[in-house]
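Narrative of accomplishments. A recurring question from our advisory board has been how the design workflow behaves on a single, concrete structure rather than in aggregate. To address it, we present the structure tokens for one chain from the evaluation set, followed by the sequence designed for it. No filtering or post-editing was applied between the two.
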């Protein structure tokens, strides 16, 4: 009577879900989740801006939540990965129809990358530095959009104060946005490198 040897090799268990077919490590899945959640926050900001804040007028202007969200994510995540996010998110912002025009794409991207690199090189990580950088970036963004619109004769010079007030009003949303973005940024490990 012959006994068969049991095979030591056992094939892997076949998973039928979609994540079983995508070969990603745990860290890659967490990074993918982090960027998906950042995108979801920006889409939520877009919906809030278009549905709710477009009906609210403070000093004859309204907020710019989406540029604030794009800039904040890029500043918090650093210049390398944040720059790609800023480019893609500004493209989505433009094609959503609520952006002030094509110039918002390069303006948002360059401002976000410059602010992220400046923060990594010279500033510490914290809420106050983010608030100051976002304030400067939002004012520059609003002034750039105003300058381009003025050059193309789409606005009048008296609207300059409304653009600056819009940047100030948008900064009020940063204390609400900061804890959400910091919590999402911790998924998959820290990306801040000194």
């Amino acid at each position: 009577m012959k006994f068969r040897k049991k095979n030591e090799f056992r094939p892997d268990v076949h998973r039928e879900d979609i994540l079983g077919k995508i070969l990603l490590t745990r860290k890659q899945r967490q990074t993918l989740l982090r960027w998906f959640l950042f995108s979801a926050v920006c889409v939520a900001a877009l919906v809030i801006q278009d549905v709710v804040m477009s009906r609210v007028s403070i000093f004859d202007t309204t907020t710019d939540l989406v540029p604030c969200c794009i800039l904040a994510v890029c500043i918090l995540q650093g210049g390398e990965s944040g720059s790609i996010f800023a480019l893609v998110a500004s493209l989505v912002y433009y094609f959503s129809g609520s952006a002030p025009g094509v110039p918002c794409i390069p303006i948002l991207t360059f401002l976000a990358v410059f602010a992220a690199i400046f923060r990594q090189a010279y500033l510490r990580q914290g809420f106050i530095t983010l608030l100051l950088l976002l304030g400067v970036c939002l004012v520059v963004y609003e002034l750039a959009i105003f300058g381009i619109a003025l050059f193309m004769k789409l606005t009048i010079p008296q609207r300059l104060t409304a653009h600056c007030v819009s940047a100030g009003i948008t900064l009020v949303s940063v204390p609400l946005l900061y804890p959400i973005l910091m919590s999402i940024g911790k998924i998959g490990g820290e990306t801040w490198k000194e």
